[in-house]
């Protein structure tokens, strides 16, 4: 890396002007950490702006693109992809019914069901609906997004949260609405009857302004603008933080946090995390996997401080489908604890990640996203991207090769860093033009481009020429790349020519590959012009070797 940074400095200084950076690269989260993203092409991934991985086996994906289009793919359990059917799809399909809508936030349940709010404050739901968690007044599965307007028609929703089978939304004026499964009072209506349409959560929240909401499996939470936390629903593991294990059918203030100003709340399957305005974390509830970070596995029904490090915590992360906890410090350190890939981590563990999202991608079970991922455009180019762009650029080059009457523009310092041959040959060379007659233009250009990009793009026949060059310059990695390219392009017509090249350049692995191909296609290969024109010694060796492997048994 130091060499590359020196190189960029050298490129900048030599030309007297900065390297141009006009193409937009992405400040990408490494979405590759979620296996389902491997179903998307590189081109598709470059367009992603928001993404959510969900489902009981993290086998469903929804993402938005730079064009504000929404795509989905995966197993489509209970029609949770919103496509109007229950067919799984291994290729991204556009969700046309939400065309033109910009997503502000999104959450999902265990069914799964989806609750989505647009930047306009509208709410759409679809998916599993056995408990009325879609809020459309029925228990029929929702195969396409449905606009939920009952009791929300004049409201702008700014945050959504889902428990396993219930839903919560927060409006811009600080009101909380809930609907769906209510067996433990998680809808906050005062009863245990399921709630088929959005209902405002009142009681102790009646005159409060909520600023944040979250759901555990069967409980609900709201933080209000005074820093107090209100909780309701299932409490069998102490996840309401009230010092008891009794369910709460209406909101109740967490009295143990008196004098502590809470900014955010996050809920796991049956545990709760809160972040205070002073950057401290408290946890309570289920702890069988160490998800409270207290150093033991005992449940806690009262808020308990989590000691992460002296640095201030700026983000907490949990998800109702997992027993995993994560936090990020002001200094950028990411910690995780709880259930981590089957292990029970009872104290906050410092990771090598730069994002809490990565914790859930790599260690949560299932490996879902705990929030809607956001990928922001960024004009910054990495060192590698900058180098690729400078190949054959006459504006910044200080050396050019003349091959077959054409120029190839390069940078001496890069060639010396990347290639032993050039390190010695250019050491005392003051010329700005080098003539090259030993190799063809396509082959030499491919070689020089490889030094900038670490990759090659050639036909198998041209790759033979590059193999010759790689052998001459003792570039072993390039030699392997050439052999791969040749293997991918072998056919009955060129098999003998490629075999001859492999022998000539002592590429033993390639020689064996080409020989096996010839044996497997012997009848056709022996009738080609390449076989008829085969070098006499090579032909003798080929026949001898073919007989030893039983090619002429008949």
Automatic annotation (TrEMBL):
Start-end of each RCC repeat: 121-173, 174-226, 227-278, 279-330
Q: Where does this protein reside within or beyond the cell?
A: Cytoplasmic vesicle, Secretory vesicle, Acrosome
The UniProt record lists the BTB domain at: 397-460
Q: Which residues form a coiled coil?
A: none
Xref: SMART domains: BTB
- InterPro entries (alphabetical): BTB/POZ_dom, RCC1/BLIP-II, Reg_chr_condens, Signaling_Regulatory_Domain, SKP1/BTB/POZ_sf
Name a single GO cellular component: acrosomal vesicle
Which Pfam families does this UniProt record tie to the protein?
BTB, RCC1
Q: Which UniProt keywords apply?
A: Cytoplasmic vesicle, Repeat
Matches recorded under PANTHER family = BTK-BINDING PROTEIN-RELATED (PTHR22872), RCC1 AND BTB DOMAIN CONTAINING PROTEIN 2 (PTHR22872:SF3)
**What is the recorded name of this protein?**
RCC1 and BTB domain-containing protein 2
């Amino acid at each position: 890396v130091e060499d590359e940074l020196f190189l960029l400095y050298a490129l900048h200084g030599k030309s007297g002007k900065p390297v141009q950076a006009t193409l937009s690269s992405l400040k990408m989260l490494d979405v590759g950490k979620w296996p389902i993203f491997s179903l998307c092409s590189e081109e598709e991934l470059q367009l992603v702006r928001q993404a959510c991985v969900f489902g009981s086996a993290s086998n469903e994906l929804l993402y938005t693109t730079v064009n504000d289009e929404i795509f989905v793919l995966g197993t489509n359990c209970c029609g949770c992809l919103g496509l109007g059917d229950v067919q799984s799809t291994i290729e991204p399909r556009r969700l046309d019914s939400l065309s033109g809508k910009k997503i502000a936030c999104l959450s999902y349940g265990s069914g799964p069901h989806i609750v989505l709010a647009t930047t306009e404050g509208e709410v759409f739901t679809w998916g599993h609906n056995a408990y009325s968690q879609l809020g459309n007044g029925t228990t029929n599965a929702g195969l396409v997004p449905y606009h939920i307007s009952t009791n929300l028609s004049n409201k702008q929703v700014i945050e959504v949260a889902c428990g396993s089978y219930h839903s919560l939304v927060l409006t811009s004026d600080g009101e909380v609405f809930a609907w769906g499964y209510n067996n433990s009072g998680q809808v906050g209506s005062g009863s245990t009857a399921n709630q088929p349409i959005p209902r405002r959560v009142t009681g102790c929240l009646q005159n409060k302004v909520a600023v944040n909401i979250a759901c555990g499996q069967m409980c609900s939470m709201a933080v209000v603008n005074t820093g107090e936390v209100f909780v309701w629903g299932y409490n069998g593991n102490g996840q309401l933080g009230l010092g008891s294990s009794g369910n709460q059918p209406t909101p109740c203030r967490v009295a143990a946090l008196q004098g502590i100003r809470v900014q955010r709340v996050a809920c796991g399957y049956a545990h709760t995390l809160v972040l205070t305005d002073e950057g401290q974390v408290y946890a309570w509830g289920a702890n069988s996997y160490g998800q409270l970070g207290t150093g033991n596995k005992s449940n806690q029904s009262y808020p308990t401080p989590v000691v992460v490090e002296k640095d201030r915590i700026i983000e907490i992360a949990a998800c109702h489908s997992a027993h995993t906890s994560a936090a990020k410090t002001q200094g950028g350190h990411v910690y995780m604890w709880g259930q981590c890939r089957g292990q029970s981590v009872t104290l906050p563990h410092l990771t090598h990640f730069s994002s809490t999202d990565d914790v859930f991608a790599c260690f949560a079970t299932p490996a879902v996203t705990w929030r809607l991922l956001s990928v922001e455009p960024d004009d910054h180019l990495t060192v590698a991207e900058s180098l690729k762009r400078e190949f054959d650029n006459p504006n910044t080059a200080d050396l050019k090769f003349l091959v077959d009457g054409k120029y190839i523009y390069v940078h001496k310092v890069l060639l010396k860093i990347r290639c032993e041959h050039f390190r010695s040959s250019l050491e005392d060379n003051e010329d700005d033009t080098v003539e090259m007659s030993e190799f063809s233009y396509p082959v030499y250009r491919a070689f020089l481009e490889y030094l900038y990009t670490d990759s090659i793009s050639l036909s198998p026949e041209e790759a033979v020429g590059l193999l010759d060059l790689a052998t001459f310059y003792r570039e072993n990695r390039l030699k392997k790349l050439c052999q791969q390219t040749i293997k991918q392009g072998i056919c009955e017509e060129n098999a003998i020519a490629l075999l001859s090249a492999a022998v000539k350049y002592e590429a033993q692995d390639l020689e064996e590959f080409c020989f096996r191909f010839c044996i497997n296609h012997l009848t056709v290969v022996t009738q080609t012009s390449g076989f008829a024109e085969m070098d006499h010694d090579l032909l003798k060796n080929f026949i001898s070797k073919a007989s030893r492997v039983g090619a002429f048994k008949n």
